[in-house]
Amino acid sequence: MGSGTRIGRVRGLGSAKHGAQHWLQQRLTAVGNIVLILWLIFSFLSLPALSHGAVTTWLSAPLVAVPMMLMIVSIFWHLKLGMQVMLEDYVHDEGLKLLSLVALNFYAIGGAALGLFAIAKIAFAGAPA
Amino acid sequence: MDDPIVLTAQKSHKLGNNMTGNPKRPLSPHLSVWKWGPAMTASIVHRVTGNGLATVGAMLLVGWLVAAASGQESYDWYMGWATWWPGKVVAVGITWFFFQHLFGGIRHFVLDTGAGYELKTNNFWAKMVWAASIGCTILVWLIIFWKAL
Question: Which segments cross the bilayer (chain A) (predicted)?
């Protein structure tokens, strides 16, 4: 907080200067999601079958595994930014807000890591039959 | 704390929501006088679909990848649930959530430029988002069921 003057109080409660970055990243990842998830839907519709063999063979191709990994990063980055805004709007208790934001970060990074590892395993090591 | 603005604010706060303490002074905005409209629905539905996709949608996607990486048995178990009728209902729901959030997001891209805030224009595109999302969901699932035949 400031020294008690009006400008001091404004400075103490003002912008942390990361709002524009958050806003821009949310929109950049939104564009990423549009392109990559539409690609996933078209892929699902054009795959001959969704059997384990067909899906793992498809996922091990570089031009499938890499977009899939980028999609996971884009999705979890976007959902972290979006859910953060939702929690900041609805969770008013400071302690609970901090706790829920920590949980959100664990969920976003953990979920993305799990998805990336699963894709990498199929692509590099193959899935057990 | 003898700042005149702070003192006035504290005084008016004690008196209620009227800044001068004069009950005849008109209040603005009229928070209690409003009608539910398409733009408001689009706004809250965008948030609900976004958070639904972020939780259920993202977990089911990662779950599918983990099941595929774990082997034939776990993948078949996952697909067994996914193709059971409640699984299909969830899948159709996620498809609609995705398209609603996609078209709602594109609407927000346009609104970000400062365009489309006129009442009729705003309500028209809010309704068009619904039409596009329902249309795309029906199209995707018609293709899926047509392929399954």
Answer: 30-51, 57-77, 98-124
How confident is the model at residue B25, as a pLDDT?
A: 74
Q: Which of B143, B87, B140 is nearest to A38 (CA)?
A: B140
The CA distances from residue B140 to A40, A41, B50, B128, in Å, are 12, 8, 20, 18
Structural domain for B22, as ranges: 1-34
What's the number of domains chain B is made of?
Answer: 2
Which two tokens mark B73? 């048995």
For B18-33, letters b (16+ CB in 10 Å) and e give eeeeeeeeeeeeeeee
Same domain membership, residue B125 and residue B57: yes
**Residues of A whose CB is below 8 A from B50:** 79, 82, 86
Q: Are residue B44 and residue B26 in the same domain, yes or no?
A: no
ipTM: 0.88
A75 at the B interface (CB within 8 A)? Answer: yes
What would the pLDDT profile of B113-141 be if each residue is shown by its tens digit?
Answer: 999 999 999 999 999 999 999 999 999 99
Q: Using one digit for the tens of pLDDT, what is the confidence trace for B31-49? A: 777 788 999 999 999 999 9
Interface test with B, best of A29, A31, A38, A79 (most B CBs within 10 A): A79
Both B55 and B90 in a single domain? Answer: yes
Q: Give this prediction's pTM.
A: 0.83
Contacts of A118 in chain B (CB under 8 A): 62, 65-66, 68-69
If you search the block for the tokens 């980028």, which residue do you land on?
A70
